[in-house]
Amino acid sequence: MDNRPIGFFDSGLGGLTCISPLMRALPKERIIYFGDTARTPYGSKAPSTIRAFSSEIADFLVERNVKMIVIACNTVSSTCLEELRLRYPGLPVLGVIRPAAERVARDCGGGNHVGIIGTKVTIRSQAYETLIRELDPQTPVRSISCPALVPLIEEGIIEHEIMDLSIRYYLDHFLSYYKIDTLVLGCTHYPLIRANIERLYPSLSIIDPSEEMAGSIRRELAAADMLAEEPCTDNTFYASDLSENFVNMINRIFEISEFKVAFKSFDLEVKR
């Protein structure tokens, strides 16, 4: 038994999509979330900058006595996972990429054509392709970066023609040219536009890594006898820029009455 909170972090508000499935699966767990909304997006930044920001945020969560860190960001997971595990050797640190890769390997046979969409950094790292091919060498995997989508989502421009046009700009040719039938949402922001994608491409099968994370967290906590036994009384959501969009997104995603929203700024000089 371990009633300490689970620490989540993301480059912005997208990582919130990982928390809702966890709350359904493990309702007793308490959450501390940090969204780096002042410095989002991470997907176009240098890896050295991403590593510096991520270490700073992880330190902040560790200071709050979390029992686990969940990197609710594909960009950070593809860049910093092993580094953060070395930084905190006694603390479980989970990334969001492996659970989705395992789902692809489990559910997609050689007859499927899998597409990955994500930020520039995630796609450039080839983290999804590498893991999927290790687990299932027979399934064709293609990927494309969609850099304009995260800024639009962060601004709350979701149910709008601009979002649909942006999605079609990236995906129309990509899906048809590679005959993609299964699409992995390789950014935790993208579940917020899943309805748009399903409406535009109704025959497409969607894999959401945010949903796959809950099972990984449950297994890790259960194996270490760290599941919470006392009912959760409050959750805290920190942001480096406490915008109206951040608060609105919490209310949009969650049906919870007990939570706190707090501001935390960082003043970090990144040396390259």
If you had to describe this structure to a student in words, what would you say it looks like?
This protein has 272 residues and is of the alpha/beta class. It is 44% helix and 16% strand. The protein has 11 helices and 10 strands. Strands 4-3-1-2-9-10 form a 6-stranded parallel β-sheet. Strands 6-5-7-8 form a 4-stranded parallel β-sheet, with helices on both faces. β9, α11 and β10 form a beta-alpha-beta unit. α1 crosses α10 (209-223), α4 packs parallel to α6 and α4 (97-107) crosses α10. The radius of gyration is 18 Å and the shape is globular. Mean pLDDT is 90; it is low at 268-272.
Summarize the structure.
This protein has eleven helices and ten strands. It has helices at residues 19-25, 47-63, 74-87, 97-107, 120-125, 127-135, 149-154, 161-177, 194-200, 209-223, 244-253, and strands spanning 6-10, 31-35, 68-71, 93-94, 114-118, 141-145, 182-186, 205-207, 235-239, 259-263. Residues 268-272 have low confidence and may be disordered.
Secondary-structure blueprint of this entry?
Layout: E1 6-10, H1 19-25, E2 31-35, H2 47-63, E3 68-71, H3 74-87, E4 93-94, H4 97-107, E5 114-118, H5 120-125, H6 127-135, E6 141-145, H7 149-154, H8 161-177, E7 182-186, H9 194-200, E8 205-207, H10 209-223, E9 235-239, H11 244-253, E10 259-263
Parallel strand pairs: 1-2, 1-3, 2-9, 3-4, 5-6, 5-7, 7-8, 9-10
Helix pairs in contact: 1-10, 2-3, 4-6, 4-10
